[in-house]
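Self-study notes.
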Amino acid sequence: MSRAYNRDKFDYLRECGRINYNSSRPTPGVLLIGGAEGSKSGEDSATRWFLERIDGGNYLVLRSGGIGSQADWICDYYRDFVGSSAEISIDSRDAANDPDVIDYIRDADGLFIAGGDQNDYEDYWEGSDVEDAINYLINQKRIPIAGTSAGMAILGEYYYAPAHQGVISSEILDNPFHHNTKDIYHSDFIQVPILKNVITDTHLDRINRNHPEARYGRIFGLMARIFDKNYNQVPVYGIGLEEGAFVAIDENGIAEVFGNGTKEGQDAYFLQTTGVPPEQIEQDYPLIWDCQGRAVEVYRISGTPEGSGYFDLNNWSTASGGMWEYWYTTGGYSGFNRRLVGY
C-alpha cells in the first residue's frame, strides 16, 4: 500500500499492486452507473466488462471529499484484473493543477469517477489540468471510463451541477425556470465523443425521506430547457438510469444494460427530442410539452445480470431488446405522462 498526501490539496492511496507503465493495451468504453451499486446484481458482470478493458493495467478512482472504498473493493474481489488499484481525492483548485495529481491521472488505464457532489467536480476540476488529463485519457490514450451518480452526471456534453438544492421533478415541470435549475451547463468540461448533445441523470427511481419524487420528470424538464436554449435547432439526447442499472457502451457506440433482471429498479432510458418545441416554456408557468403525446421519444431497456438489449448511440434509432415510449406533459407535473408507442 502506498499513500501520498499533500495537506489541503489532495489525498492519494494505492490499495494494491504497483503502477505499470505502458504495459497494458486498454480498450475504450464507457460504463454509466445508476447510483446505487453495492448489493445490486448485475454489478459483477458490468464491473468485469469494464475491468477486462483495462488489460491488467492501472485502475484509478477519482473523487472529492476524501478517499473511499472503491479501489479497495477492486483489490478484494477483482485483483486478477488489474495491475494496480488506487484512489485520489482532489479537493481544491490548487490540487487540480498539482503536477503529482496529473501524473497519477495520466498513468491510469481505466478511470472510475465516483459519486458525491458534481458541483464540487465542476468547481474544482473544470478548466484545470485535471480536466485536461481526463480528456487526454479519453481521447488520446483511449482508456475506458466509468461514472456513478455525480461521476456519471458530468460525463454528458450537457450536465446539471446544482450549487445548492437540486431541482425535483415537480419544481421543474411546474416552473421550468425554477431557481434550482440555474446550474445547467453546456460542457467544455469532460469530452466523451459518444455522449455529445447528451444530458445524463441517475437515481431515477429513488424515493425516500430526502427524495420525495422520482426523477423521470426531472430529466424530461432538463431536456426541455436545453432544447429551448438551443432555439430548437439541435437534437437533445438524454440517458437516465434507475439505481440498479449499468449501461456499458463499447468502442463502437453500442450500449447494453446490466441489472438485476427483475421487474423494477434496473431500467435504462435513452431519450431524444422529436424536433417539436414545447408549446409553453416560460418563467412561473407550467411546462407544456405535449406534441400530441409525442414530445420525447424514449427507448427503455431492462437490465439483466448477463447484459441485455442493444442501443446504437451513433444514430439513436437502431435498438432491440427493449421498448419504445413517448414522454410528454399536458401541463406541469400533474400532466406528465409516459406511454408505450402504439398505445
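Second protein, same conventions, sequence then structure:
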Amino acid sequence: MKKILITGALGQLGSEIAAELRSRFGVDKVVLTDRRDDVNTDLVEEGPFYRFDVRHGEELAAVVRRYRIDTIYHLAALLSATAENDPQTAWDLNLNGLMTVLEVAREERCAVFTPSSIGAFGPSTPRDWTPQDTIQRPTSMYGVTKVAGELLCDYYYHKYGVDTRGVRYPGLISNRTLPGGGTTDYAVDVYYQAVRRGRYSCFLKGDTYLDMMYMPDAVRAAVDLMEADPARLRHRNAFNVTAMSFCPEEQAAYIRRYIPDFEIDYHVDPVRQAIANSWPNNLEDYAARVEWDWEPRFDLDTMTRDMLRVLSRRLEDARYVWSDEG
C-alpha cells in the first residue's frame, strides 16, 4: 500500500491530485503539506496536514519518516507570471525546494513526481508538434527553473537511483480551483466570467495558440505515470503530454455554442504575452503514449461543456444557468 506525501498540496494542481489520491488510496495514506492553510480547508481538516516551507528539509524529512512515505508528489512552485515578477524567489523556491525534496527522497528511498511545463521550451524550439527531445532555451525564469529541474531529477535518478518521474504540463484548466499566476490563466477565468457576466477581457491576443489540458486529464497523467512499470520508461523527466491546442478566439467560439451572446475583448498584458509567444503552439506526446499508454479524454468541446455545466450550478451569482439541452 502506497504512503504518499504532497508538497504544495493546496494549490491548483496539488488540491486536485490530493483529492484523487486520497480517494484512491485512503485519506490516512496521503499526507499534505503547504506553506499556508487558509485555502481548501476541507483538505486540511479531513486528513494529515502539515504547514511548512518545503525548503526546510528537517521538517520534511521528519514527516516522511513519521508516516513511512514512499512516494512524494512535489508540486510546490511559483508559476510563470508570478515567477517573472519575482525571479529571485522563483529560483530559490522552485530549485532549492526541489533539491530539498530530492535529498530527502535519496535518504529515505522515496519515488518523486515533479511536474515540468510547456514553459521549459523557448523561442528557438520548434513551435508546431514540438518533439519530446528538442531544443530547450526558455526566456522566462519559470522556464529556466523547469529545465534545470528536469536535469536535476535526471541526475538524481542516474547518480543515486531515485525513482524520479515527471510530465511537461500545458496550461491546466480546472472547475474546482482558481488559477494562481500562470500565463494560461485566461483559459480558466474565461469560463467563470462567461457564467457570471457573459463577457471576458483577455490578457492575451486573440490568435495566441497554446497547448491546454482539462484538470481531470492532468491528474490522471500524474497518477498513471507514477503507477507505470518503470522498465518501460525511457524518458522519465519529463514527458510531453497534451490534450488540445486553441487560441482565445477559438475558445470563445466554443463557449458561444452554449452561451450564444458571450462577448470577449482584449487588454493585452505584455509580460504574459511575451511569455506565451516563446512557448510552442502544440506538443507531440508520442513518447508518453508509447511508454505508459497516455491518452487524454477531453477535447475543447467536451471540456467547455463540462466547465460551463459545473460552474453554472455552483456559482451563486451565475448569469447563465445550465440546461442539459443547451
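Instructor comment on the second fold: The first strand starts at residue 4 and ends at 7.
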